[in-house]
């Protein structure tokens, strides 16, 4: 209503102004009677009358009467200011102040001065001069005398009132919003869709509240405006620059359906609309168009989100498919070895006595590999479920790195790679962190570096951060295949590697880096990578060290002394015939645990399920119970609870293949004393039982000569003894080693003869035998050179390389020693230790 009144007011003012302009123009054209002209005519007539009267007095020479009459005329005419009768240059009569008379210049009259000649007979005697008040104003007339302003004012006021009332009635009838009943308009305003009606010129003649709210303009203010005023943009699949759908509808007269248009609304939020246009007919011709606007902004946003989610899901599905394919290969490979060699043993195949042991080693290593795969998956699931727990204990990062490199040295040597440990500057001797997680991260990173490096070296470098005094940097550099920037973006994603070709060539599940990254984050650090294709990669592991206020900092020289000559210990437990109950539904598990425990002088009783275990425990005493938790008839949880309810206080340790967070607590809640996982770690099993049953522990310490780039002087290396890693204090194992040594020398002699006779087949068979036999009897030092010899012979490489490898094997064989029982029981400090140094690299 306010808007309509404002428009009516503006239109009324405009019409009044127009009327005034026409009136003034009519005045200028003389179409309106001229009061000023009438005044001038009356003044001229007065002057003629006075002049005629003065002429009679002149003829009678009656100047006194002339002056008297002229005075009467001046007094009776208020507009007459002065009068004078002039004869030549002499003023005969002067009434009023006639000194201001202005010379006429040949004119007889103006608006304020009238000059009339006076004749005496036919001769001009003089002249009559009458001076009036000025009447000429703007444009030659006096508006005050002509009363133009009152006229204009009167007309302006009266016409405005008339026009305002008239327009009110007219606009009421012409208002498009009143073309339909108010209840219908109200119904239109409640619609969620925006509605516009435009005429043939594109002007808005009708709008509802929804579109007005979108445009943030009052409905009445929309009327009369062009649709193009609001910056609509053609959207969807339509060509840029194409006409809006309503323009197309007006032009063609055809309806437009489901067109997409965009609008940058005044609130700054981009909006998207589905527009439908229908022509509005006026008789037999088109009079405009009806436009509906359906706001689908949120729908489009959800559509985009859905599209992104679909792409992410497709990528995830592809990654999952690739992961499953990789995992299938990774799992089937060790499973094939396990099942195949187990079947060979079951059938009794084997060409020699050493073959079964070699098959068992293969089965064991394949099982370890399979367990690592499973652990990777479990670790990732713990991380992603938020159940990852890390320890905060004191640990030595350098010792951890040395141990990792010690384990992986064989792989590096097999590929002909140098594996170095470097210390830059000084590092803390101990930090506060989780040693198990640090070991796992470094193992993953170094293992990857070895896997993706064909030649050159892998270097593990420890140094302190230059920007944070409580951060330790562990850099793993390699000279491998490297990666592009695109590949770097996804290497830390689960189930992915740099690309599928990498997976096909090198294998792997793609979990290692993802797990390592999450572990590093949990330890207050992270992992970054710098890489160039064909040059190599550098992975930098950052670890929070905790407070170093009282820490002891060591350099490269000191690090070599920390490992105490890298002593390996073989631990043996013996017991006093304590009774142990092993409860497991798996026959193989029962047999394995029974064999291990009986070897340690324990009396073992086995049960297949929880019910049988409960019957045995209530009928006879046991010193320890090993309880499987998943069994038929009665599971371990139920059996443990029942035993505790019966008052049985015997230590019960859970044996379960579950390794997820939460299962351990479930076992403890059921009443278990502790928790052991499957596959069974024999050392952990014996150590646990030993601590519970207070067994006797003895250690046989052996020097380890496979540390990470531990540089041993050549004279020491050539003479340092090699000891078997088998438990030499046990006669059965000792006899195996004793019989192996002479056989080894015999095989090496045969190998030399075969080389001299160029008998490749025999050399290959002997190298293959030594590759498995050496590690089987506890001499893993023979594995790598024997495997190298096998490859050299198969590839028919240079005889010089083959001879050098044979010489290396002979040198190793000459260093073998069989320790006496006195040497085994001798303190480790008294055993000979090679001098160890670690390279320090300064950058």
Indicate the structural class.
alpha+beta
Report the helical percentage: 40-55%
Average pLDDT taken over every residue: 76
Give the strand line-up of the largest sheet.
Answer: 6-5-10-9-8-7
- What is the CA-CA span between the terminal residues? 83 Å
Task: Describe the protein.
The chain is of the alpha+beta class and 843 residues long. 48% of the residues lie in helices and 20% in strands. The strands form 7 sheets. It has a 6-stranded antiparallel sheet with strand order 6-5-10-9-8-7, sandwiched between helices. A 5-stranded mixed sheet has the order 12-15-16-18-17, with helices on one face. A hairpin with a 4-residue loop joins strand 5 (194-199) and strand 6. Helix 19 packs parallel to helix 20. It is rod-shaped, with a radius of gyration of 58 Å. The protein starts with a helix and ends in an 18-residue tail after the last helix. Residues 498-507, 563-568, 700-718 and 827-843 have low confidence and may be disordered.
In short:
This protein has 843 residues and is of the alpha+beta class.
